[in-house]
Amino acid sequence: MISDKEIQYIANLAELYLSEDEKKRMSAELSQILEHVEKIKELDIRDVKPTSHAVETENVFRDDEPIKPLDREEIISNAPLIEADSFKVPPII
Asked: Are 8 and 15 in contact (CB under 8 A)?
């Protein structure tokens, strides 16, 4: 089981304030995670190839074909505010 001192250290690193109940719960949960990691370490994975996905993936790209651009007037008609034939947005300070 992870000690209260270790839980407090982790909470400080994460800049979290934990109540006493939360510290107890985190201690139990983190201890379970570490126990699970120890079980995983026991597995023989010498013949397992490294992978970035659990399932086989394939890139799917559409063909890069030129298309007719959208009509400017139609696009501008959807804007809540228009100024000088452009979208008008509130200033961000």
From this structure: no
Residue 75's nearest CA partner among 65, 90, 67, 85 is 85
Give the mean pLDDT of 57-64.
82
Q: How far apart are CA 2 and CA 30, in angstroms?
A: 7
Token digits of residue 91: 């200033």
The domain segmentation of the chain, as residue ranges, is: 4-41
pLDDT digits (tens, 9 = 90+) for 14-48: 999 999 999 999 999 999 999 999 999 999 988 88
- Has this prediction a pTM greater than 0.85? no
- Tell me the residue length of the chain: 93
Overall CATH class of domain 4-41: mainly alpha
DSSP line for 17-63: ---HHHHHHHHHHHHHHHHHHHHHHTS--TTPPP-S-SS--------
